[in-house]
From TrEMBL:
Keywords: ATP-binding, Glycoprotein, Kinase, Membrane, Nucleotide-binding, Phosphoprotein, Receptor, Repeat, Serine/threonine-protein kinase, Signal, Transferase, Transmembrane, Transmembrane helix. It is found in: Membrane. Residues 35-139, 146-262 form the Gnk2-homologous domain. One of its GO terms (molecular function) is ATP binding. SUPFAM superfamilies: Protein kinase-like (PK-like) (SSF56112). ATP binds at K384. This is Uncharacterized protein. Pfam families: PK_Tyr_Ser-Thr, Stress-antifung. The chain crosses the membrane at residues 302-323. GO terms for cellular component: plasma membrane. Residues 356-635 form the Protein kinase domain. It comes from the Eukaryota.
Length: 678
């Protein structure tokens, strides 16, 4: 008996090491277990088993499972039911995934939906090779990454020169985002950043290559895809901070990087990092691929492959079980952290600002004073402190907190948190070292620092921020107080729209409404709003047009330009030169100091665009999306001819077209808010 068992025992002892070392490519990819990355059970509402909603969920998942793998883009949406029982769904397979693996991945989604997220009406599942979501709301009509966004940083960190490592990751992600948005119909790109320097990690080995992957839903337009990915890229340093791996799991676009290859196929982008920290060299899709020798499998190889498949399947089941238990705990913890992440302690903010010392005061607005501060980790912040004598009060703070906390865009000032303690009411923002646009534009000494390229960049970035508010955000917002002092500038002079205390949330189906409480800043408000209380997105368009003309001329809209009645404010001044055929005469003289001046075509385009935005009839003004397209258009000859602007200006202490509503208006530097729910 002993001798009879010797051969199988020896065979087993020989095969086990081979099984454990067997390469995964010996097993067909569609036979591998799907790797669950994360999932989100939004417990806002639930449904009963065997209910109509339950049947619709199963129908949607079945449709996605059948249609997604067969779609050329690996992307599909579906809906089922009607009324309150309607279910909308979406599935997307990774761009390097074949049909078989895609089918296997999407088919694994119900295991999470009907077990870990049993009865939940809004579920998102992230596998390594695919994502899927279903919900009771039509999220497919409003692409918004912030509805479901889960961050997964690596536990390992690059221990030397983490800042350089982060910069390389950001450059790689930016190049991949450009490629995915503008060069790929799948909205997918994978690539590698090679560094000759290397980075020692906490695991003890040197990191030389950084591999990255980005993807958007294929039905996103290129600019929308690029903007979606940019919002993730901006948050990368804070989310991952020197870590050698990380990923943003989200529905409409996602991003991942590692220090080992995790995708299939050739990289679309290959970058080489210079040791001198100069920008990487982009070599397009050039890459070195080393092929593997292929041999005809023999019987031993088949046995090893089969045993490998069995053991790996068992290990995968065990891993998924343990992973799910860990994720359930992690999900609960993450929810708790997110709920409290916006709250700041008053003692922390007092310490950060040296008890609101005058030396740290950055400025003063209608809300109150703004102070610079430093948190314990060295992060710079800007703290807006409600002035106890301010007329804007808790309503503006509440409005700003509720709106801005939901917004994520590179051209919007980022709200970090809030503190309400007794009479102290404070908002905490990211610190922007160059403060606001007006501190440069209307200062005779600083104005010269705003070369034309910078001004055009500010105009373009502000337009992008407004397009997001009006079109791309999941909530439609009218800012109502766009002006030079509410456009902040970061260290690279990138514009960020701030101060949402007067912003108005708009029903996506409405185009206009009427309010009896007119608020805002004189000179930037459209006449139909200032006089009649008519509120629409064209109010922001008008304000943007005034801002553009201020940027071009370097003059405030309330400046007096002469004794002639028709030309006593900025808009009439610009219009007079436009009809006379001398529009370039209005250009800021500081732009002409180098003898070359700005590009004449761009100047004329911005002047014409500004005049189109301030036309008297709101219907004649372009939308912000149209404005953004015009800014990208090299040829302005196709633009419509502007009509005479609507003049709302100070004249002997009165406002043209004044009415009872105008009492709520304010001077250029002060915003007045209403005290009614929006």
């Amino acid at each position: 008996m002993t001798s009879a068992m010797t051969v199988p025992t020896m065979l087993w002892s020989t095969l086990v090491p081979l099984v454990l070392l067997a390469p995964l490519f010996s097993i067909p990819r569609h036979c591998r277990a799907q790797v669950l990355m994360n999932y989100s059970c939004n417990n806002g509402s639930s449904y009963a088993e065997n209910s109509t909603y339950d049947s619709n969920v199963r129908a949607v998942l079945a449709t996605l499972s059948a249609s997604t793998p067969n779609a050329t883009t690996g992307f599909a949406t579906a809906s089922a039911g009607r009324g309150a029982d309607t279910v909308w769904g979406l599935a997307l397979c990774r761009g390097d995934t074949d049909h078989a693996v895609c089918a296997s991945c999407v088919a694994a989604v119900p295991a999470i939906a009907f077990h870990q997220c049993r009865g939940v009406r809004d579920v998102t599942v992230f596998y390594d090779r695919c994502i899927a979501r279903f919900s009771y709301g039509d999220f497919t009509a409003r692409p918004d990454n912030t509805e479901v966004l889960m961050v997964s940083p690596s536990k390992y960190q690059a221990t030397v020169n983490a800042g350089h490592f982060d910069a390389l990751v950001t450059r790689l992600a930016g190049a991949l985002a450009d490629w995915a948005a503008y060069n790929s119909t799948l909205r997918y790109a994978a690539g590698v950043m090679a560094s000759s320097d290397g980075f020692p990690s906490t695991t003890g080995y040197m990191v030389h290559n950084i591999y990255g992957l980005v993807q958007c839903a294929p039905d996103l337009a290129p600019p929308a895809c690029r903007a979606c990915l940019q919002a993730l890229i901006v948050d990368m340093p804070q989310a991952f901070g020197g870590r050698i791996g990380g990923q943003f799991n989200a529905v409409w676009c996602n991003l991942r990087y590692e220090t080992s290859v995790f995708y299939d196929g050739d990289p679309a982008v290959r970058l080489v990092a210079s040791p001198s920290l100069e920008g990487p060299n982009i070599n397009g899709s050039t890459t070195l691929i080393i092929g593997n020798r292929r041999r005809r499998p023999n019987a031993a190889t088949v046995v090893v492959s089969v045993l490998a498949a069995v053991i790996i399947a068992l290990l995968s089941v065990l891993s998924i079980y343990l992973w799910r238990k860990l994720q359930a705990k992690q999900y609960t913890a993450d929810q708790d952290v997110e709920a409290g992440s916006l709250l700041f302690d008053l003692a922390t903010l007092r310490k950060a600002t040296a008890n609101f010392a005058e030396v740290n005061k950055l400025g003063h607005g209608g809300f109150g004073a703004v102070y610079k501060g430093f948190l314990r980790d060295g992060e710079e912040i800007a703290v807006k402190r409600l002035d106890k004598a301010s007329g804007q009060g808790i309503e503006q703070l509440r409005n700003e907190l509720l709106l801005v906390a939901k917004l994520r865009h590179n051209n919007l000032a980022k709200l970090l948190g809030v503190c309400i303690k007794g009479e102290e009411k404070l908002l905490v923002y990211e610190y922007l070292p160059n403060r606001s646009l007006d501190t440069f534009l209307f200062d005779p000494e600083k104005r010269g620092q705003l070369i034309w390229e910078t001004r055009y960049h500010i105009i373009h970035g502000t337009a992008r921020g407004l397009v997001y508010l009006h079109e791309d955000s999941h909530i439609k917002i009218i800012h109502r107080d766009l002006k030079a002092s509410n456009v902040l500038l970061d260290s690279s002079m990138n514009p960020k729209i701030s101060d949402f205390g007067l912003a108005r949330l708009f029903d996506g189906n409405k185009t206009a409404s009427v309010t009896s409480h007119v608020v805002g800043t004189l000179g930037y408000m459209a006449p139909e709003y200032a006089v009649l209380g008519l509120l629409s997105v064209k109010l922001d368009v008008y304000s943007f047009g005034v801002l553009v003309l201020e940027v071009v001329t370097g003059r405030r809209n309330t400046d007096v330009f002469g004794a002639v009645e028709e030309s006593n404010n900025l808009l009439s001044y610009v219009w007079d030169h436009w009809v006379k055929g001398t529009p370039l005469a209005i250009v800021d003289a500081s732009l002409l100091g180098d003898g070359r001046g700005p590009p004449e075509s761009e100047m004329l385009k911005c002047i014409q665009l500004g005049l189109l935005c301030v036309q008297e009839n709101p219907a004649d003004r372009p939308t912000m999306l149209h404005i953004l397209v015009m800014l990208h258009d090299v040829d302005a000859t196709s633009f419509a001819a502007p009509s005479k602007p609507a003049f709302t200006f100070v004249n002997g202490g009165h406002t043209t077209g004044s009415s009872s509503n105008v009492a709520a208006l304010s001077l250029n530097e002060v915003s007045i808010s209403e005290f009614h729910p929006r």
